[in-house]
Amino acid sequence: xxxxxxxxxxxxxxxxxxxxxxxxxxxxxxxxxxxxxxxxxxxxxxxxxxxxxxxxxxxxxxxxxxxxxxxxxxxxxxxxxxxxxxxxxxxxxxxxxxxxxxxxxxxxxxxxxxxxxxxxxxxxxxxxxxxxxxxxxxxxxxxxxxxxxxxxxxxxxxxxxxxxxxxxxxxxxxxxxxxxxxxxxxxxxxxxxxxxxxxxxxxxxxxxxxxxxxxxxxxxxxxxxxxxxxxxxxxxxxxxxxxxxxxxxxxxxxxxxxxxxxxxxxxxxxxxxxxxxxxxxxxxxxxxxxxxxxxxxxxxxxxxxxxxxxxxxxxxxxxxxxxxxxxxxxxxxxxxxxxx
Length: 340
Description:
The protein is an alpha+beta fold and 340 residues long. It has two domains: 3-186, no CATH class; 261-336, no CATH class. It has nine helices and eight strands. The strands form two sheets. The chain has a four-stranded antiparallel β-sheet, covered by helices on one side. Strands 5-6-7-8 form a four-stranded antiparallel β-sheet, covered by helices on one side. The chain is globular. The mean pLDDT is 92.
């Protein structure tokens, strides 16, 4: 999820009642809500390096525990010397650690809901897992958080303006709880729609072949619209899956034939960026083009593809000499379709 959503989630957790557990609770929650994304500094080494590291150790169970310890010490040591404000709760190292860990666990959980996925068992296992029910930027979740945090504040300001006294703390707590419960509701609707999309995709034939693997990946706005990916023995198929309809139309699917094994393809797979990409990709589709300079090989992860889109997302390119030596390699999160 985007960092604004993570930040507002941390604030909502505090407003729901945890902010009174210790001084500097909000600091622990807000920083903790974003701290797993500290791996963004690896982007300085290039997009392929970022792909290799992102959502790795800092999104693992061991990683967030270590980060929570560092965060708690960083807040507690200088914080205990600061003078407490009026009616402020005492500072607690235990609660600062727990709040930071809770915020980071919520960050990892929210990232688990989208198609990018996480690797929670590092360093013991590098297996990617993903729930595939939410886009990376979820507008409904963001709107729920903004409404749940802002409406009680606006009502309090209006009440004070007209001379009525309201328990602003109770209103803020209720608004935060409603927002957090609303997120669970959105996840529930998306989960059921996702299961329906998978069942629809699995119930058809594609080019006369049965599906070997299927995937359904969320559209940004419509919770009932999914981008379907179907793998058969000879091809991949991209198609829309509307879970409010009776089924999918396999005849309207975009056909992407699988590349046959070749020396160029095998050489490209050994390139460093390709190895990183293929360890991440779930539906890797390849194209091998012979050029005057040798060969150009493209790898795409089809879970980030839309039927007939002009853009390619999550693409690795490897250029080879006629003798299959790597001349150039690069990874891009998004680029124009080079075949047009």
